[in-house]
Amino acid sequence: MISTSTASDLAEAIREFVDLGRLARQLADAEPPADGACVLHPSRAGLLGLLVADGEQRLGVLAASLDVDASVISRRVAALEEAGLVARRPDPQDRRAHLVGVTERGRAVLAAYREHRAEQLATALAHRTDEEVGRIAGELRGLVADLHRITPAPRRRSDPAPAR
């Protein structure tokens, strides 16, 4: 069992780590790829990555998976669709709904985006060895797994609030 002081130190480190998301967005905005091939906002890259990993999904499922409002997903999907990175088609189980899936162009742009981000990380961490970075990655994965074990499943916005 760790001490409260150690847990507090870890909580502060986690807050600092979460702040990396903001820094990553700033880096993506400040340093686009030289060829301009994959200018993609991290939130849209996350949505594309989810669709690549999980396949076609309804907007509501995407919103729940990313824990954002349906209107946010709708705007992101519209932007990705306009860029030709995703496509919608009627859901065969419910013609009133649509499924969103990644296009081949979307897969290519996501791959280029991920490659560019990996190059940025490699540059930022050039002073570290592969072994050091591997240990850091392993520790981060372990921390995420530990936190998932104690975190309740996210509620969908349509779910009733829990009783108190």
Automatic annotation (TrEMBL):
InterPro entries: HTH-type_Bedaq_tolerance, HTH_MarR-typ, Tscrpt_reg_MarR-type_CS, WH-like_DNA-bd_sf, WH_DNA-bd_sf. Residues 13-152 form the HTH marR-type domain. It holds the Pfam family MarR. GO terms for molecular function: DNA binding; DNA-binding transcription factor activity. Keywords: DNA-binding, Transcription, Transcription regulation. PANTHER family: CONSERVED PROTEIN (PTHR39515), HTH-TYPE TRANSCRIPTIONAL REGULATOR RV0880 (PTHR39515:SF2). This is HTH marR-type domain-containing protein. It comes from Pseudonocardia halophobica.
